[in-house]
Amino acid sequence: MADQQVHDAPGPVPPQLPVLRWAQPPEGPVLVLLDQRRLPAHETELVCTDVPALVHAIQTLAVRGAPLLGIAGAYGIALAAARGYDVVEAAGLLEVARPTAVNLRYGVRLAADAHGRAEAAGATPEQAAGAALEAARALHRADAEASRRMAAHGLAFLGELLPGGGHRILTHCNTGALVSGGEGTAFAVALAAHRAGELRHLWVDETRPLLQGARLTAWEAARNGMPYSLLSDNAAGSLFAAGEVDAVMIGADRIAADGSVANKVGSYPLAVLARYHHVPFVVVAPTTTLDLTTPDGSAIEVEQRPAREVTEVPVPRGAVAEAGSGVSVAPLGTRAYNPAFDVTPPELVTAVVTEEGVLSPVTGDGIARLCAAARRG
Ligand code: MRU
């Protein structure tokens, strides 16, 4: 069951509501999400009291972005355990709610394993539920710390790539505080550059079809007082041609063992443009997004989404950004090609920035080294 509480957020003000929080009202524990489908017009909390409600929130992108999906998945297991549901069944439902972002599976398994270990050691159901919750909280904290470290590594790397500051960064989708326990991935680097006085401009791709750039990244940039402009995705080519882009910075939903990067659809064309125009293409992601069990890009499952997300123009301001809520623009019965992500091969990626450091060039050996470093902690 999910319940909604609405608070109007009329302009660029500091964040009022946490992106995700655990709460324990007298009726029982709940997971409270900032409903990203309703931003920027409304700051709305979505209260999930069970796993099916959370699965629905994940599938409709009320909660989204790879690192946050991992955190939400872990809390989802804690919720199931605390409310006495079958944790194995909950894990099965949550893991496949969205197939591409590997963080979701990571977070779910982390909390389910903690629960299973506690049970195997003879813990009571309450104690086992507590172990799952502690695993979720630890992941939440670790992601915030990873975000801080990625921002520092990314800023230093930008300084090496483009000495002298004044960076004009192009980004795609949304990779800020809305996807993380901290300030995000690629956006956190741009924000660090802004705070250091080194960001000349942030170019924000609108990110069709669900407009994560226009609705969410522009919102985050405005709140942080960053110099930014919004562009339609298909204007990126002429922006490169005009020499207005110094670096592309994006996040990732999964990075395969060979360094192939799955990210929001539209990322691959940016990588091709960046290569043609000799502009660095930098991917910023925590090591929880690296997946050694996926050998290469062809093995990454790319989520296909409803046709209506493409045949409709989404969200009159204030409406919910999901299929079925927009204005239909295509003839009735039009079919659509609507992959949520695309895959960029490693040879087009200048660097992968993680909390464990920067990998450039991007190679399979380097990805394995980063994973090993993350395991050593
Ligand atoms: O479909 P979404 O909005 O969940 O897609 C999100 C992205 O593609 C992000 O760029 C990615 O998760 C990286 S977020 C740090």
From TrEMBL:
Its EC number is 5.3.1.23. Catalyzes the interconversion of methylthioribose-1-phosphate (MTR-1-P) into methylthioribulose-1-phosphate (MTRu-1-P). It catalyses: 5-(methylsulfanyl)-alpha-D-ribose 1-phosphate = 5-(methylsulfanyl)-D-ribulose 1-phosphate. It is an enzyme of class 5 (isomerase). Pfam families: IF-2B. NCBIfam families: eIF-2B_rel, PRK05720.1, salvage_mtnA. Substrate binds at residues 64-66, 98, 212, 263-264. Pathway: Amino-acid biosynthesis; L-methionine biosynthesis via salvage pathway; L-methionine from S-methyl-5-thio-alpha-D-ribose 1-phosphate: step 1/6. InterPro entries: IF-2B-related, IF-M1Pi, IF_2B-like_C, Initiation_fac_2B_a/b/d, M1Pi_N, NagB/RpiA_transferase-like. GO terms for molecular function: S-methyl-5-thioribose-1-phosphate isomerase activity. This is Methylthioribose-1-phosphate isomerase. Belongs to the EIF-2B alpha/beta/delta subunits family. MtnA subfamily. The active site is at 253 (proton donor).
